[in-house]
Amino acid sequence: MNEFIFFLNKVIISGATLGSVYALGAVGVTLIFGILRFAHFAHGDMMTLGAFISFMLVGVFQSLGIQTPLPTGFIVLPFAMAITAGLALGIDKGFYQPLRAKGVKTVTLLIASIGVTLMLQGLIRLFAGTATRSFFENEPKDLFRYKLPIEGVRSINISEPQILVILTTIVAVLVLHFFLTRSRIGKGMRAMADNPSLAQVSGINTAGVVRATWIIAGSLAAMAGTMLALDVILKPDLAFNIVLPIFAAAVVGGLGHSYGAIAGGFLIGFAETMSVFNWSIMFRGYDMPEWFPSDLSLVPTEYKLTVAFIILVVVLLVRPQGIFKGASS
Amino acid sequence: MIRRDAILFAGLGVLVLALANWFSVPYTLQILVNAFAYALIALGLNVQWGYAGLFNFGVMGFLMVGGASVTFISYPLNDAFWSSDGPFMLFKALLAAIAGGALIWGVTRIPKKGNLAKLRGFLLVIAWAVAYVVYRSQIDPAARLIEAEADFIGGLGLPAIFGWVFGGIMAGIIAYIIGKICLGLRTDYLAIATIGVSEIIRALIKNMDWLTRGTLTVSPVPWPSPLPADVTAAGIANPDMAILMARSGFLAIVMLLVGVIFFFLQRAYEGPWGRMMRAIRDNHVAAGSIGKNVTKRELEIFVLGAVLMGIGGAILTSYVQLLDPSGYQPINHTFIVWVMIIVGGAGNNYGALFGGIFIYIVWTISEPASVILFSFISDMSEGMRFGAIPDIEARALQMRVFVLGIVITFALRYAPQGMIPERVRTQES
Amino acid sequence: MSLLEVKEVYGGYGGAPILNGVSMSIEREDIGVIVGPNGAGKSTTLKAIFGLLEVTGGSITLDGHEVANQLPDKLVPLGLSFVPQEFNVFTEMSVHENLEMGAYIRQDDISDTLDYVYEMFPPLKDKRKQKAGELSGGQRQMVAMGRALMSQPKLLLLDEPSAGLSPRYMIEIFETVVNVNKSGVGILMVEQNARQALEFASKGFVLAGGNNRFTGTGRELLDDPEVAQSFLGG
Where exactly are the structural domains of chain C? Predict the structure, then answer.
């Protein structure tokens, strides 16, 4: 029983939190790919940017003496999302739109987004330095322990940020779902991803749809980045470690398919936590023979990120259109 | 157009002279050594992208392979390793790897149609799993033993030049394996896949402490030519002069190597092989329909480019005399090379050469230039009572990244073909 | 003033011009049919009208407004609608959603128009929730036309509506076209099945080499031996 709780803490809860962050990031990437038809490499840095904006806002709030019942990082999230969305629009207008107007190949846009990544990374580190920061320097990070009414069994540990991350992701996913299936612009986005020339022919305001896409992608990026920083720590490196797992999640779910991206995010999140988990612990309660290895983790902990890359490469080779049925490339 | 090329290269020469003047000759020599190494790497990428349209975003991985190879070849022997059980256990692990590879290869030979076809996918997964477990069972104890008794396997103590060649060969082999698997992918998918692959390579090299000492790094890796210390020992008393002579020696070797490679590349480019490659790049379908084996050619190109990258990576590691897996960053080692060929001119060897040297200089200079700029601003802001800017050194380092980003953006907007674009022969097109 | 007036239009995709001075005029009561050999510029004319390629000479007016070289999303509010030949439905969206997309520019209540479209294409009533990509060729064509009708156009442009359809569906489509016209929508369509289409055309245009060769009512063209010989296969 103890082992199961350990599993729950280390794999299920961690996996769900990481998966949530990946899911939110992957949705942004997949929307941009579906509608604007290019791989937006700068998404990781957009997440970092969002996280840093949240951090700065937290500083502002604290200097104004505002106390909040939930972690302040959370409360400032809507503002950070709005600011990041605005910046995303600005970046598109300044860097990608002029190239799109010239009719460049999608590969050129990928390179342009790398240029944007470099600029963002340079700027962020320039202004914020390279130190790591915590959202919880000035306030406590609540850790909840649920003791089960069973003797001698360890508690289920979940931290407040983790709860908030998972809940927020669920809410965000539901909101996104309603947006895409009930609202005019949401349906316009789906139409554009489906068939851009027909969308234009039908009179859909493509420029408006593009703007909506960046606003959503930017907001979700800010959400994902901030929540990751709340759960773990805020460092400028956030971006690069995140970009590839997010692309992996988007590819696994089928590029352009939002629901696939969400599922992909959780899949990769759980895959990572499960592959570094030392499965032999599960057998501790039982009498195992001598030769049974003491370390049954699939990969050593240092290779945790590699798991996402491996999944990415495998999916790209075996089924590039994504692993879910009906996903078309 | 030849006039313009000449002017650009002349300009580059002037820039180098200016650097020698502003900074110092030994420092400029150092910049040039690295610049030429990067130019070689850029030539490699140019071969892959410019000749065949292949999207390799995993340049860093090949550089690391080159660096690890030259370390292995040229670092002195580690007696502790050779006198332990280490070599034997490694040999067993190698056998296990070969056996596993053979098993996997065997399963891939199962025809895709026929009786066993349905099981093929399933058997393939089993084959990979078995190979992995068997390999782990041999390598884990080997790694533990080596790390405990001998720290790491050390090197072979051979001359550095051998290491450079070996670096190229290893990079080529890895490129062959990766290419066999990945080259069928569409452009942006290939880009993402190669990034993934290079990250996997980085994780492996960083964590195989028994091979590379991982984060503990390996140094000093020997030079192919006499070190400053050696020059001093040979009788040159003035330390600055020793450094100057030693670095000039290294630079001479590198320039010679790059020159020879460049010559052969140009010959190939202008000849029938080059024309065929460009035909394939420009129109896959048409080329395939006239019987050219597109896949085979692409693999050739991919391997060739990788070999150049491996040599370049080896040169870099040799010069700095340090193998530090954590020091490899995609920005410094992949993206910068892409900027080099985009700004320099993809598809054109002169463009790659120019881009390599020019962008490396810009990249290196941005740091001290930013320090000067920031110090200036800092003094001003101190004067205005805003206080000095903290951590100028660290921040200036970041400016390099920003500058690189700006350069890409401007290049894409205003000179998408590069400064020395490919010369399209109108009779051909 | 005609509903649509195309005067001496030159245009193409950027290279050599495909249209070399095409002219035609359509009224709201008309069913206009453009026929001609391959490469004559038939589809190109429609695309020129709908702003999908560059018009380098001449003029195109809709209700007196100059519309040449305007983007499609400006033309739809003016009362123009276009059904492309291929990829003319949103395959991942349901039939109903496809129709909703057709009405994207409208701010008012679209339920009357929806009823009208479902009446026009009864088989779609049961398939409202089905993905358009799962339908048969003939039903897809219905969705494509229905989508175009949702914006309540004054003039409907159709690019080879019967392409790839069985003869039964072709007849149905043509009947539908006639019905749509009767309900007050001008029609201008390009057709490969020239004979059948010209049967009910009030205006026929034979194009070749990017300009007009013959113009007349459908009946006139069908009865003209010269036209029949050169373009309709005797």
Answer: 4-79+153-231, 95-152
